[in-house]
Amino acid sequence: MDIITKFLKFLLGVWAKELNAREDYVKRSVQGKLNSATQKQTESYLRPLFRKLRKRNLPADIKESITDIIKFMLQREYVKANDAYLQMAIGNAPWPIGVTMVGIHARTGREKIFSKHVAHVLNDETQRKYIQGLKRLMTICQKHFPTDPSKCVEYNAL
């Protein structure tokens, strides 16, 4: 738990230092202000995650997924980290949005939806926000700690 918190806070610090190192005219530009606002928003989105990690009451499946994501990020395996992120965010459900009644085959559709397969993004707004913040930090990590192109996820944001 402590390693997850320290690593995510480290990435937030790296991002903040990058933004502070920019020229003044860049900071004052529209794009510069937008980038700063995104960093501050990400910080606020991750606060509930840090609180849950500190109190050790993060749901076990999310904790396992975040642990995998952090492990892959530390190994600079960004494609695997992205796969783990997608698994956590949208899951493996046949209907990730939670659609169950789709006509005459409704019973089989309902039987395929398990709690493990439910998309965590849809559970509540707070979870959606810190999962989104985690994705932003994955992008920052890949930008600052590049690796083989075959292990990278292509982001237009970089």
UniProtKB/TrEMBL annotation:
InterPro entries per record: Prp18, PRPF18
SUPFAM superfamilies: Functional domain of the splicing factor Prp18 (SSF47938)
Domain Prp18 intervals: 6-147
Subcellular location: Nucleus
Endpoints of the signal sequence: 1-16
One GO process term, biological-process aspect: mRNA processing
Superkingdom, natural source: Eukaryota
Keywords (A to Z) from UniProt: mRNA processing, mRNA splicing, Nucleus, Signal, Spliceosome
GO-annotated cellular components: spliceosomal complex
Pfam families: Prp18
Primary residence: nucleus
Annotated family: Belongs to the PRP18 family.
Name used for this protein in its record: Pre-mRNA-splicing factor 18
